[in-house]
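Extended Data, panel c. Modelled sequence:
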Amino acid sequence: MGADGNGAGRTETLPVAGPETVRRDARRLLGAERGTLVRLGAVACLASAVALAGPYLLGRIVDHLEAGTATAGTVDRLALGVAGCAIAHLLLTRYTRLGAFRFGERTLLRLREDFVDRTLALPARMAESSGTGDLTTRVTADVGTVGTTLRRALPEVVPALLQVLFLLVAVFWLSPLLGVLILVAVPPSWWVARWYLLRSRAAYLAEGAANSTAVEGVTATAEGGHTVVALGLERTRIEVTDTDTEHLYRARGRTLALRTVLYSVAGFSFSLPTTVVLLVGGLLYLEGGASLGVVVTCALYMTQTSEPLSTLMIWLEQLQGGGASFARLRGVGEVTPAPTTRAVPADDRIEVRGARYSYVDGRDVLHGIDLDVRPGERLAVVGPSGAGKTTLGRLLAGVDAPSTGRVTVGGVPVAALPPEELRERVILVDQEHHVFVGSLRDNLAIAAEDADDAALLAAADTVGADWVRSLPEGLDTRVGAGGTTLDAARAQQLALARVVLADPHTVVLDEATSLLDPTTARDTERSLAAVLHGRTVIAIAHRLHTAHDADRVAVVEEGRIAELGTHDELVHAGGPYASLWRSWHGTVP
């Protein structure tokens, strides 16, 4: 928010996609790699089949030894077969893993691009009110969790599942009785998996929300550190952080408890088949119901199931966490976009009629604003802090729509214009200016992709950013994280240069030069005035010299237009503006 601070008090949470949406979007993402998945699945089946051959050949060696028919040649050939199967299994598994990692990276790339598109399409109100913590955790922790799932699930889950199935079929083939008995592990495994799945999604979503809240609190404290110290709020912020941390601790404790039950019951049930094979298989061997080789082979098969079954249980938990993170990522697209219109504004005249706006229901910040802004006019909006200036600027720029009343440009609601149409007509430049990671050229060209270097440098010169030409690498200088650090004043000039390049019909300046020193700010504003001649400029002013240079001045007090007129008219009227001017200059001219 701007200097008014009127946005405080309302927090909206970004939605989370429902199960059906998650399933549909997951199918769409996976469907884009259908050929890769089929190929990797076939290789995984082959690897699982090869894995069966080793224990079977060992069983044959045991049978030959027991029957006394073993020769050195026979044992050597069977042993070489075991070694060959192990090597083949290793190579097939490595191929599957490599392909799965490539599949995961391609799919994660599409997911990230889609998430960025959805985030950029968020209504500005929602993006701001939800806070940075929620978006930060979604784009970092949640993307990381989904990435791990995509990269590792296929090479681990599918082979593990196929290996278990192949091993069970092999046991049934060697000894139907042992095959039936090893199913004793199914009931407890099924019960604990069902119990876990019914509870885990909600628990992981709660953990993600608690993590977002904790990050938001810490970020807010760090960004407002000077304010916290100046107002003596250290204890309050510590208490808030402690509370958020406690909630996160409890949320993670719930997911840990679910995992503890899952792994404990699953571990016990997975040990049952091996025990059954050893006990019952031994009795069958003693009674002549099965050969020693069959019993050994079945025991080896059951021993081999331990690792893939453990992998499946681990991934049952990982997939739930990944599913919850995926739901949080896809939930960004569940935000209802602001309605748009196909109507084309007749001109650039801005009209405000009966506009009211509230951040908290029942507490209006603006109270029935009426205002006309003529094309080409320079209008200054002044008033005390908290009067509603920034909120009015956001309505005029189409960032927010009025709760009641209307704000139109050329007869069309400003907030209903499509984004591309809105950018061509109205641009809001406020006090927060972001420097993107990349070159200066990239940062400037965001506003005009086709602009050449000469145009970029001219825009920088227009706003007084002559320091751009003095940089060693000029426009190629890397800025942002890991590059040259731009102070607040230079970041502000960079944002103003973007406005020059964007060349809109109307510019709303929300104290856009507040971080510049008075001399530089005045020079920059004069340069902008020259460049924007003939365009509409609405300047939400903190320094009253801005109002002095404006065609008209609108004085906002307690959410209402208290006065409207030229600087001279309002000074001689002796009202609120004259009082502001007197407090600024000490005397009334």
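Confidence is low (pLDDT under 50) at residues 1-11. This feature is highlighted in the accompanying rendering.
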